[in-house]
From TrEMBL:
Name of the featured protein: Cystathionine beta-synthase
Cofactors: pyridoxal 5'-phosphate
Signal peptide extent: none
UniProt domain Tryptophan synthase beta chain-like PALP: residue ranges: 14-298
Domain of life: Bacteria
Keywords: Pyridoxal phosphate
Protein species of origin: Corynebacterium casei LMG S-19264
Pfam families in UniProt: PALP (PF00291)
Classification via InterPro entries: Cys_Synth/Cystath_Beta-Synth, P-phosphate_BS, TrpB-like_PALP, TrpB-like_PALP_sf
Length: 318
């Protein structure tokens, strides 16, 4: 069963953002006593939920043609902002680390983005995100005319997922879900969903799904191999949020759950999509019979074929 909304025609590819499908996972949840749904953000034109964030940040900014933007990304936001740069006629510099998938980097370059790939983590913390942000700061010093939209503090992301993602879920389902599980990194997606829940006074329990080794929501730092969720530093956005619960998932469990999803539902998720499925498994004993449970699958796994869907890589790294 698929709940969807009709897409309207638009003037640019950006008009295709949103109205992504909500799919019921009856095969995966065959023996469960509740209804499981997946919001498939890979159906955005750039292939991820970050399309919503990038569009909202660009729209809220005062960028004009000829502007220069510098940002850090683990991949998906980089692709989304690369598209915005083409449509807005500005230049985009994206800082990535070695965990960014080769196809993602190639996609950004194809769109004309200048990619800066760091080779070492932050020497004090050992974290790649800290190192990426330090490189962004260096580039901003070297290019005084450049600006950073800063996905880690930009509240436009909250608006994108309040008025977009969560509003769509409620409309497609016909009512607010009993549970919503969202993988977290910058925390823009979960922040927007929490804002919708609070402002509309609905009873949805919102669970943050974090990676083991992430420092979000009082987590403890550790080694993480999968990009796309978790963080090695506390973003400003997360300081404004209080999810109803936090579930932390190990890298290997995320991979295993992702592979289970594709083998049962023919839905190929990225790492964070595997994590939310693994989190539902953990939450199962406390979910009331007949509940509607929604997971947000932020992207698909086509960019992860060399990593989490490669047996040799998994055995070597995880």
């Amino acid at each position: 069963m698929i709940a969807c909304m009709i897409r309207n025609s638009g003037h640019t590819i950006a008009d295709a953002i949103g109205n992504t499908p909500l799919v019921r996972l009856d095969r995966l949840a065959r023996d469960w006593n509740f209804n499981l749904w997946a919001k498939l953000e890979a159906y955005n034109p750039g292939g991820s939920a970050k399309d919503r964030t990038a569009r909202a940040m660009a729209t809220a900014s005062s960028l004009n043609p000829g502007a220069t933007v510098v940002e850090s990304s683990s991949g998906n936001l980089g692709i989304a902002l690369s598209r915005e740069a083409v449509l807005g006629d500005w230049t985009f510099h994206c800082v990535v680390d070695p965990r960014a998938n080769r196809t993602t980097v190639a996609h950004m370059k194809a769109l004309g983005t200048v990619v800066h790939q760091i080779t070492e983590p932050d020497p004090e913390t050992g974290d790649w995100l800290v190192a990426r942000r330090a490189r962004v700061a260096q580039l901003l010093e070297q290019m005084p005319e450049a600006v950073c939209l800063d996905q880690y503090s930009n509240t436009a992301a909250f608006v994108a997922h309040d008025k977009g993602t969560m509003t769509e879920i409620v409309a497609q389902l016909g009512h607010a879900p009993d549970h919503l599980l969202v993988a977290v990194s910058t925390t823009g997606t979960i922040g927007g969903c929490l804002h919708y829940v609070a402002s509309n006074n609905v009873a949805t329990q919102v669970t943050a799904v974090d990676a083991e080794g992430s420092v979000l929501f009082d987590g403890h730092p550790g080694t993480r191999h999968l990009p796309g969720f978790g963080a090695g530093m506390v973003p400003e956005l997360s300081k404004q949020l209080s999810p109803h619960r936090v579930i932390r998932i190990k890298d290997r469990a995320s991979v295993d759950a992702a592979r289970t999803l594709v083998r049962t539902e023919a839905i190929l998720p990225g790492a964070s999509g595997g994590a939310v499925i693994a989190a539902v498994e953990k939450l199962r004993p406390s979910i009331a019979e007949g509940s509607d449970v929604v997971v947000i699958v932020h992207d698909d796994g086509t960019r992860y074929m060399d990593t989490m869907y490669n047996d040799d890589w998994v055995e070597k790294n995880l």
